[in-house]
Request: fold
Amino acid sequence: MLQIQGINVHYGRRQRLFDVTLPVLEDGDILGLLGPNAAGKSTLMKALSGTHAYQGNILYKGKAQGQYGPSAWAKDVAYMPQSPPQESALLPFELLWSAARALKLALTDAELRALIESLLNRLGLAEVALAPMHSLSGGKRQLVGLALALIRNPRLLLLDEPTSALDLHWRMVVLDWVRERIDHQGGIAIAALHDLDLAARYCNKLALLDRGRLVAAGPTEAVLTADVLARVFNVDVHVEKGILGHPLVQVLRPQLAPKSSLTALTSPSCSIK
Ligand SMILES: Nc1ncnc2c1ncn2[C@@H]1O[C@H](COP(=O)(O)OP(=O)(O)OP(=O)(O)O)[C@@H](O)[C@H]1O
Ligand SMILES: [Mg+2]
Reply:
């Protein structure tokens, strides 16, 4: 069980998350974290992963995040940041090998080799396993980032836009795999997503952030409504039930810019026709 209550985060003196409380997450839940650019999704992910300081409570299996030692936390919890692994001369195979050894996974060399090969095969990376990271496409580097997260067989997955660089096929392969793992092995996943169709398809709960505050949270169908989406994303949308049974969001048009921002632009040095 994961409880996230009253999270506040600052960068320097600027507060960017304000008292964010998410629904309690249970084994089997995938929560989609939605919101416009700069809403605070990555900031919340950093707080949850323990890579950025916060005030508030994050209780995982009834124990405060701060009570886990860094290695116990890293063994159970995988955080895939929004930026994929750096371009470098390292090879995906080497990266995965050294990540597994740094995590002190209890595997013989032969077992680790077999694990890495199965991850690489599953993610379509076998052909680039021995190619330097700087020669990989953005999507392939993102898939290496996912393999790095999954190598520890985590119980809590924190995925920050895990599919943003992937094509249609790999987006679904990746999220099908996350869903399959959570359904069969248990655990919880939180994924920051911009793609509302993927969110509707794979997440049973959603939380919607806007300017650092939670604006809606709950079961997917309750959050993905035309009213809520129009208010937060400034778009006119139509929501209906898709043929697969989950909500289907059709964006009709962006709304006109709010009057206040036009006023701000029409200062003496700037006019709009
Ligand atoms: N390292 C940082 N230092 C200072 N401010 C930051 C830092 N990282 C993020 N911010 C600010 O915090 C706010 C939230 O940013 P965050 O990256 O969490 O948004 P996001 O919802 O993930 O956006 P996106 O959809 O664009 O990834 C923004 O105003 C951003 O400028
Ligand atoms: Mg982000």
Q: What stands out?
A: The first strand starts at residue 2 and ends at 11. Residues 41-42, 82, 160, 192 surround magnesium ion (ligand 2) (CB under 6 Å). The radius of gyration is 20 Å.
